[in-house]
Design goal:
- The chain has a 3-stranded antiparallel sheet.
- It has a domain of 88 residues: Sufe protein. Chain: A.
- The protein starts with 10 loop residues before the first helix and ends with a helix.
- The longest helix has 36 residues.
- It is α+β, with helices and mostly antiparallel strands.
Amino acid sequence: MAKTKIVVIQLKEIIYTVIFAALGILLILLLIFMFSGKDKEDVASETKLYKAGVWTSSIPLSDTVINLEVVLDENHINSVRIVNIDETITTMFPLVAPSLDEISTQLSNDVPIDQLELRDDSRYTQTLLIEAIKVALDKAKVTP
């Protein structure tokens, strides 16, 4: 016949075992939540098109340079303006300011830069300004 063995377990050992098991499960859950949250942040960063801020580019005209300032959110162009326009530039190139106002209005209304409508009487000026805006947007693009 089999000998009967009596095992004595003290209550203190049971309590320690339960506490360590609970801490182990809590640690595993904590690690799961920490690393699953990173995937959601990566997806959110992929939807960003630009680094938010003020980006500049310059346009050489004759002997002077026009500085163009593009204000961006993460997914939106807020405004485009000329920073240091001189009176001689507005006199020599009268279509620069009105052309930029039209482009800025279209970009603020979420029209993609490749689908901007250009006027026939200022097509060259608007093309020059759009190229400068593209340079500023290339600086601000989010790279993976």
